[in-house]
Here is the input.
Amino acid sequence: MTLETLYNLIDQKKDEFIALLAKAVAIPSVSADANLRPKVYEMADFVVDEFTKLGAKMEKRDIGFHEMDGQKVPLPPIVLGQYGSDPSKKTVLIYNHFDVQPASKSDGWSTEPFKLEVDNKDRMIARGVTDDKGPLIGWMSAVQAYQECGLDFPVNLLMCFEGMEEYGSEGLDDLIRAEAQKYFAKADCVCISDTYWLGTKKPVLTYGLRGVSYFSMTVEGPAADLHSGVFGGTVHEPMTDLIAVMSSLVKPNGEILIPGIMDEVAELTSEEDRLYDTIDYEMSDLKNATGADISIYSDTKRTLQHRWRYPTLSLHGIEGAFSGSGAKTVIPAKVNGKFSIRTVPNMEPETVRKLVQDHVEKVFSALGSKNKLTFHALHAGAWWSSSPNHWHYDVGSRATERVFGVKPDFVREGGSIPVTVTFEHALNRNVLLLPMGRGDDGAHSINEKLDLDNFMKGIKLFCTYVHELALEQQ
Ligand SMILES: NCC(=O)N[C@@H](Cc1c[nH]cn1)C(=O)O
Ligand SMILES: [Zn+2]
Ligand SMILES: [Zn+2]
Here is the structure.
């Protein structure tokens, strides 16, 4: 009865909840863009204001500075919150991030990226709508739904929201460790909603993530950009050097070429290998999510293994290269190539950094170029591997089944949420990853979307999760 009342109220409030999400996505809180850093602060204020209106006690914590593009820049505050403090109730710590990846209409978006549009397939389109503002607004809406139904919220909420997740969660680890026995001391468990279903039909619970180690290398030589007709063939070109080094990192079939990297990877046991046989996933899911038939492997088993349990290396971009239209005959003077490695058990960030740096410097040195290469390790977040055999996952599973009418699959994910492992270790509490969006939402891509159905059911899922949590006899 309680849940039916909540579900009905949520359905009636649909337009209001969408409007709140539209307000959140209209703030372009891009953590990686120094010019947009004030918008990350604005978003922190938005989160504080909205939860305060709901009666939560919110505060902003200053976490100091970091270096960005060679400059010392203040980090956006961490937002902490508390909603309810009844000692007879369980306490769950929820985490979300309020920053987003960069987006610009000229990247190929069909609509303005920071204006929420609902298309004719009932999909909400905007940057951050699924990653991670939809789930964040989902929690606000769940609290509001309980209030408007006149129902007591069944658990205490502790909140930890950050604005630097898409830039490596700088500064958050220290705060979590410092507050583990203070602000977060009462947490019985941690719930993070920042992952996605594997496909588009079946809900999942996520119990593993890859880590990410992000690198860049600058190659520079001439004092300024040069005319290729005048100087081509007579000088060492930074771009040619950089491409040679970048090409030495990975093969087109995804094989990482850095010596020693694969030695760090935990061996696949036959028990783990069997787990992949029962996952509900089709090669067409990959084709639909990428919008093209470009799979490296022809079967789902190897595809999922390379997404979840093997490392991958991706080349992301080259700063300083000519990228405009037309045919400019330039030799760029200074270029900065960016790439990252998704890491898996048992890779250690420091070992990875050393192997990568040694390889890059060795390959560059073998070129015999008179240009200069500088290697940068930008940030590193750890992988996380847990087990779904825990009462907290039973709670998540029961809640999911009540809302979707089907038991969720238990899956891992190829992306990274660097603080997951920090929460688990510092608080010594179970962490459940409870997704809202689908596998084809296009997080980080153009036309990022969140299906209206997932948003509405996601709000119901959060309401049901706290209801089930309160009933759990642990
Ligand atoms: N939804 C989680 C997510 O997108 N995480 C990012 C984390 C990251 C680290 N460095 C840059 N981004 C991811 O890319 O997995
Ligand atoms: Zn995210
Ligand atoms: Zn993201």
